[in-house]
Amino acid sequence: MIVAKKIFELPEFHATGGRVIKNLRIGWECYGRLNADRSNAILVAHYFSGTSHAAGRYAKDDVYPGYWDVLIGPGKAIDTDRYFVFSADTLVNLNARDPRVVTTGPATIDPDTGRPYGLSFPPVTIADFVAVQKALVDHLGIRKLHAVIGPSMGGLQTLAWAAAYPGMMDRIMPVVCAGEIDAWLIAWLGLWGAPIRADPAWKNGAYAIDAQPAAGLTLALKLITLQANHGQWVDAQFGRAFADEGAAPVDALGNAYKVEAAIAAIAAERASIADANHLLYLVKANQTFAAGPTGTLADLENVRAKTLFLYSSTDQVFRADKARATAAAIAKGGAPVETAEIQGPFGHANGLFAMAPLGDRIADFLSR
Amino acid sequence: MIVAKKIFELPEFHATGGRVIKNLRIGWECYGRLNADRSNAILVAHYFSGTSHAAGRYAKDDVYPGYWDVLIGPGKAIDTDRYFVFSADTLVNLNARDPRVVTTGPATIDPDTGRPYGLSFPPVTIADFVAVQKALVDHLGIRKLHAVIGPSMGGLQTLAWAAAYPGMMDRIMPVVCAGEIDAWLIAWLGLWGAPIRADPAWKNGAYAIDAQPAAGLTLALKLITLQANHGQWVDAQFGRAFADEGAAPVDALGNAYKVEAAIAAIAAERASIADANHLLYLVKANQTFAAGPTGTLADLENVRAKTLFLYSSTDQVFRADKARATAAAIAKGGAPVETAEIQGPFGHANGLFAMAPLGDRIADFLSR
User: Fold this and answer.
1) Which residues of B are part of the catalytic machinery?
2) Closest approach of B345 to chain A, Cα-based (Å)
3) pLDDT digits (tens, 9 = 90+) for B277-324
4) N or C terminus: which one in chain A shows less Cβ crowding within 10 Å?
5) Are residues A194 and B230, on separate chains, in Cβ contact within 8 Å?
């Protein structure tokens, strides 16, 4: 399945707080075909460090397909012979320097000054991400979505969609997420961004496009990478092997373990296409997440969609007790809710990498 | 109970790797009196960011007593009317700038140069910490300890004691720890130290004593503070309150939540008495922890001491599955092992702050 990025534009967008973003542009992609009455559309919202590339490949020789390719495609659980599946890059997308990503955020050139917005870009929220997607849905002439689905921050968007526009979808599938951001996650999100703020090259957000705070950004991505995984997988993968077999960690302060070198390499690769200010804006959007006016689970009693809530009991970002409380809050409002645990060794990242065994369950949920 | 710091000195100490540390000095304190046959001594080993101040107060008006004061004292579970309880500051103690702490490490003046050792100080290990304590025990004329106990890194020292000197103690009580450091914890420990290495003021460890990398050290201590706690407590304490009631976080990138401000304040206070290089050396000592020659749980089959292993099921530093596997490894060697869960909202820090309900259990264990 070869896919191409499309672009959706809004001449002006009113963000939370009232500020106007001009010439808003986001990328989006789709798999399958919209049917005649436009009733077969499934919107996929992406995770914190993800993009709209949920499935397929941009070119035949791409090493990796989109992140949920195991679920989405012809004959798969989310069957593109049957459904029109689409996804959009969020505002302030982390991977702003990936040529395949189209987003608007602090790294975008401000049409009024000819320079990147930097911190003059307004803080945006998950509700803003959803409002942009809503404009895209309207533009496509879709009046009701077959489903809204997504993992992690994609799950937050799914919940915000369902609470804000309860008549707009028949089903939702939030994955490895929760209906409120608690103090503990607020604090962790803040610490993910802290190394960027501590990097002198950050310059309070006013760095030149070719001189971003790469060290701070890389350290931030190390923290995110480790926290999104789980010890069970990390141990099995690396054990106590040394980064350099001839340089025992006990012999010198600078000698590292293989797991440290591996996380450094992953983070450096991720940093090469990411933007530091975008990461800080994403932290802010997640910290301030609210599915509705109260920012608490009570907002979810507004949901009307049939719900399949998937969680991981080893999740160290959205803990399982929070996921179960979220499912209960939706059920309290009267919507039919099913939950299922994602089995796997990856902790939070089970929502990305351990979804295959749930394929039949998801296919069944979507067809009922 | 008013206590005073004593000093123990070794003219030279041979560290792991063979390097010699001259004029080694560490602080220690004690509660209760050593009996005539020197058979009533309980050694307490301290945690990563702790000191030998396990109980009592240095002065009547001290706000806080030692960290296990709820357990240790006259008539308490670890009854100082009955036992001689003592504890020593480790090598490379984090709180090197606390006037009440005596330690030897990279912040110490190298007698050969007249300047702080910096990174010329040899990497030291948990086994070295234990070897220094062993020298103190010998110096006190104690041939067998009634018990060795301690939380977290103090638990690692307890396990290393019991595996290295199986005939030297009747009992051990390792708390919130495990018998091996896995890849996941190696990686987290490395990330705790990473903000110091990223701070330009670190200067590869060669900073002047009055110009240490305070920003990096403070960020490191934010990470450690958050990871040693648990969402349950953090949420209950802070919720989604703003740092400044009039400055909603959604309004500006710089507006923070109360939990972020609180962790920043705690970390800044801790940083004011800590040394950045010492933190890096502690990271190294913990990453390279080995209770015996293999660095795995098999080393613990050497333990002969009666064991009470206390763990927290919400521990995010030493996971409960690792704690249980450690207890099982000791039992496999034939030593009698009991385990008990510490109930509390603090995660890893249950081993410090939620110990009171276990007092009777501990008193009973020590008297049998």
Assistant:
1) 152, 315, 348
2) 13
3) 999 999 999 999 999 998 899 999 999 999 999 999 999 999 999 999
4) C
5) no
